[in-house]
Amino acid sequence: MPDRQVSPRLRPLVAGNWKMHGLREALPEIAKTCAAAAGGGAGEAELVICPPATLIMAAAAICEGSPVAIGGQDCHSAPSGPFTGDISAEMLKDAGASYVILGHSERRSGHNEGDESVREKACAAFRAGLTAIVCVGETKAEREAGEALPTVGAQLTGSIPNSSASEGLVIAYEPVWAIGTGLTPTPHDIAEMHRFIRARINDHLPGQGDKIRILYGGSVKPDNAAELMAVDDVDGFLVGGGSLTFKDFMAIAGVYRQAAKAG
Ligand SMILES: O=C[C@H](O)COP(=O)(O)O
């Protein structure tokens, strides 16, 4: 088990993004996660599960009183209105969510979401009392062109509000080419990016950079979570495929318990 290099000042967060996976029959996986978390299975880490919208109310009822929080995967910027098919931040809150993922690359590419739209949604999340997990990340072509840092820097400053309390905002660095591919950046590249993001947050939101958690996402699995956890400035994970089963999700979150035990 590598030494944990992340500063102990920020409580780690492990968020599971179920994407468009999960019927009601998957709810027992959430119940098992709640029980394991209550038993200390994630150590100091905070756990969030973001199921599809259809499961949020049921998932929130299961998690009530447990250490596991529920999140949405997107929201509209308006509190209500004639927006067929959309869900507002207030509706997520009303359904029992306390987090919402915003600006995921699958929404940026599949739904043409730009930075300004993500920023408006983040403002809506704050208005509703949700914590926004704002995603940023470069494509493979951008990394190969040496443009990863400026690309992510521009996305970040364009996507986050001009003012925010640290408890209302989490950043997830997710290189597009690492999502669902089994590929991950080197620890050096992740550390460089997370350090860069923290500095950019401090420029944009003075004093907040050291308080806002920066998650890594992209092919986080039980067998690489300990190594990724140990990377400087990684304050947790945004997990896709590895969050779909209780077994894998707790194995990933469990690296924080093992690190605590190791001292
Ligand atoms: O939101 C989660 C990310 O897209 C990562 O997905 P993945 O863990 O399946 O690579």
Write a concise keyword list for the protein shown above.
single chain, 263 residues, alpha/beta, 8-stranded parallel beta barrel, 10 helices, binds glyceraldehyde-3-phosphate, TIM Barrel
Task: Detail the topology: elements first, then pairings.
Elements: E1 13-17, H1 27-38, E2 46-50, H2 56-63, E3 68-72, H3 89-95, E4 99-102, H4 105-110, H5 115-128, E5 131-136, H6 140-144, H7 148-159, E6 169-173, H8 187-204, E7 213-217, H9 225-229, E8 236-239, H10 246-262
Parallel strand pairs: 1-2, 1-8, 2-3, 3-4, 4-5, 5-6, 6-7, 7-8
The structure holds glyceraldehyde-3-phosphate.
Residues 17, 104, 174, 179-180, 217-220, 238-242 line the site of glyceraldehyde-3-phosphate (G3H).
Family: Belongs to the triosephosphate isomerase family.
InterPro entries: Aldolase_TIM, TIM_sf, TrioseP_Isoase_bac/euk, Triosephosphate_isomerase, Triosephosphate_isomerase_AS
Function: Involved in the gluconeogenesis. Catalyzes stereospecifically the conversion of dihydroxyacetone phosphate (DHAP) to D-glyceraldehyde-3-phosphate (G3P).
Radius of gyration, in angstroms, nearest whole number: 17 Å
CATH architecture: Alpha-Beta Barrel
Number of domains as seen in the coordinates? 1
Largest sheet descriptor: 8 strands, parallel, barrel
Model description:
The protein is α/β, with parallel strands linked by helices and 263 residues long. The chain has a single domain, classed as Aldolase class I (TIM Barrel, Alpha-Beta Barrel). It is built from 10 helices and 8 strands. Strands 1-2-3-4-5-6-7-8 form an 8-stranded parallel barrel, surrounded by 7 helices. The radius of gyration is 17 Å and the shape is globular. The structure holds glyceraldehyde-3-phosphate. The site of glyceraldehyde-3-phosphate has 14 residues, from strand 8. Glyceraldehyde-3-phosphate binds next to strand 8. It is found in: Cytoplasm.
